[in-house]
From TrEMBL, chain A:
The gene is metW. Pfam families: MetW. This is Methionine biosynthesis protein MetW. InterPro entries: Methionine_synth_MetW, SAM-dependent_MTases_sf.
From TrEMBL, chain B:
Its main location: cytoplasm. Its EC number is 2.3.1.46. One of its GO terms (biological process) is homoserine metabolic process. This is Homoserine O-succinyltransferase. SUPFAM superfamilies: alpha/beta-Hydrolases. Homodimer. It comes from Spartinivicinus marinus.
Length: 196, 385
């Protein structure tokens, strides 16, 4: 299992209700279903991923996050999760608000644009970073809203969101001492555990 | 005519008749003392009877869902795209049961059957049947076939409503409900279309207040009109444009009221074929069953409360251009199921064909359908051993 998921799964209670925004092929929901007996639903728009979820026996709902989440009732989930999709939605702040309305707790992971490699790339080449980890050019990328740890924490502060846990990991999803010391510089992926 | 039966067809099939002598109480308050259901089966029932799948038909459907009745058949059953060896509802794994509902005109007890109380045809006196009544009659058919629990109940449109009602009324008797291009209740617009269709039939002079058989007559024009209106609503604007455009039959306009545009002659032809094969009283009954369907009504109009009784898993699909049973209505079911803490998956298939899409071999629809049914087949297999 991906190391970010290993970290996140510890924050999810057995038998709880989980909504996974942008659930991909449903692997994580499958893990939670098998190990924590959660009642999980994934939202996804990619047809191939949806079919993979169906095959796996995961509850998958075809729904575009950018069209809102108003069909979900207030506080209807224990955890609303969004892994590596914040940067791809049109209005991250609205999605964050909706997640906190629907779920008791929220978990969000996103790539940190403040990482030293991004900073280095931009200052050295004067171009938007393209890497193995983020392989898209600026014009055809699904990632339209990059932010840094600092940016995200400012948003949380503005919205009076309480941060329960926060972790940073590198590309291989391991946390080292450098990223713990200077997360905005050395952390590649941010993992936030939030509540109202 | 099929010169030879395709390898992925269920082949030549024969309809059967199930006879019930236990009276069936109907929602309208009347009782059917005796009734018969025409049905077909495809595939083999396994030893622990866990691989049975029920197919519920839509408005003008019947029990002939797949295969051919004879080598002279022009067309296979109405859902042959989806039922057969290797197809989504794979008869190598499943025992498929398809029936004609009560009130139908293709072999089940309906307006053209003899009323034992009067010894003449029921005609317009056949009681109005509801989706709930159909589900009850289908449960008795399941009893007769020794099927305690369906691996899945599958239906599109009005068929999907039956699958939904099953999940509420007989939760322990199905493991999966597959509900395609359906709705938890009709919209006013939908009821309006049905009313136009009914008025077309009832105002035809050939209708004779429903006693047309006795007069050796039938409301041909009314049935044609009803079908034409229906047909328009089953297609999307795009689908019609692509199929017919504004193409003229003779290449030029004639300044008269004949069928000048291709779409006009198509509708007339479809209406005509339908009027010759479908019974007017049955059409009235079936559209009423559609209008009346509202499982939430028994639960203070709370669909979540109604669905909280269900214990099966749900697979729901809609089509983007379906405006008669729009994706929003399917989403209503999905949202209620999530609120009721039920297992549900939902796909909104991008398809230009409108409501009719549910009968067509659309690749994404087919693949997802196949993936879901393969999962059910695996569950069946795992429980066999």
């Amino acid at each position: 299992m991906r190391t970010d998921f290993q970290i996140i799964q510890a924050w999810i209670d057995p038998q709880s209700r989980v909504l996974d925004l942008g659930c991909g092929d449903g692997s994580f929901l499958k893990y939670l279903q098998e190990h924590k007996q959660t009642l999980g639903y994934g939202l996804e728009i990619d047809p191939d991923n949806i079919e993979r979820c169906v095959t796996k026996g995961i509850n998958v709902i075809e729904q575009d996050l950018d069209k809102g989440l108003s069909n979900f009732v207030d506080n209807s989930f224990d955890t609303v999760l969004m892994a590596q999709a914040l940067q791809a939605v049109h209005y991250p702040h609205l999605v964050l608000e909706e997640m906190l309305r629907i779920g008791r707790e929220c978990i969000i992971t996103f790539p940190n644009f403040g990482h030293w490699r991004c900073r280095f790339y931009l200052t050295q080449r004067g171009k938007m970073p393209v890497s193995k980890f983020m392989p898209y050019t600026w014009y055809d990328t699904p990632n339209i809203h990059f932010c840094t740890f600092k940016d995200f924490e400012e948003l949380c502060q503005q919205k009076q969101v309480r941060i329960l846990n926060r972790m940073v990991v590198d590309q291989t999803h391991r946390g080292d001492w450098l990223s713990r010391l200077l997360p905005n510089l050395f952390g590649e992926i941010a993992i936030y555990h939030l509540t109202r | 005519m099929p010169e030879q039966i395709p390898p992925d067809s269920v082949g030549l099939v024969e309809p059967q008749l199930a006879i019930f002598n236990t009276p069936l109480e109907l929602a309208c308050g009347q009782t059917l003392p005796h009734y018969e259901l025409a049905y077909e089966t495809y595939g083999k029932l396994n030893s622990n009877k866990s691989n049975a799948v029920l197919i519920c038909h839509a408005l003008s459907g019947h029990h002939h869902a797949a295969g051919f009745h004879s080598m002279e058949d022009r067309k296979p059953g109405w859902w042959d795209n989806y039922i057969g060896p290797g197809k989504p509802i794979d008869t190598n794994h499943f025992f498929v049961v398809a029936l004609n509902n009560l009130g139908g005109c293709h072999g089940s007890t309906g307006p053209n059957s003899v009323n034992p109380a009067t010894k003449k045809l029921y005609g317009p006196e056949f009681p109005i049947v509801t989706v709930k009544d159909w589900v009850n009659s289908q449960a008795r058919l399941a009893d007769m076939l020794s099927i305690e629990q369906w691996a899945a109940i599958i239906g599109g449109s009005l068929g999907g409503m039956q699958a939904l009602q099953w999940s509420i009324d007989y939760p322990e008797r199905l493991k999966h409900a597959v509900i395609i291009a359906s709705a938890p209740k009709l919209t006013a617009q939908n009821i309006a279309f049905n009313e136009v269709a009914r008025q077309a039939i009832m105002s035809d002079e050939g209708f004779h207040n429903g006693w047309y058989k006795e007069q050796n007559d039938y409301p041909k024009k009314g049935l044609m009109l009803a079908r034409m209106v229906g047909h328009i609503t089953y297609l999307s604007d795009d689908a019609m444009r692509q199929k017919f455009g504004r193409e003229l039959r003779s290449g030029a306009i004639n300044f008269d009221f004949g069928a000048e545009f291709q779409v006009e002659s198509y509708l007339r032809y479809q209406g005509e074929v339908f009027s010759e094969n479908f019974d007017a009283n049955t059409y009235l009954l079936m559209t009423k069953a559609l209008d009346y369907f509202d499982p939430a009504k028994d639960y203070n109009d709370d669909l979540v409360a109604a669905l909280s009784h269900a214990s099966c898993q749900f697979f729901i699909m809609s089509f983007t251009t379906d405006w008669r049973f729009s994706p929003e209505r399917s989403k209503d079911i999905v949202d209620a199921l999530i609120s009721a803490k039920k297992n549900v998956s939902y796909l909104d298939i991008d398809a230009p064909e409108g409501h009719d899409a549910f009968l067509l071999p659309i690749p994404r629809y087919r693949n997802a359908f196949k993936a879901y049914l393969a999962r059910i087949a695996n569950e069946v297999k795992a429980n066999e051993n």
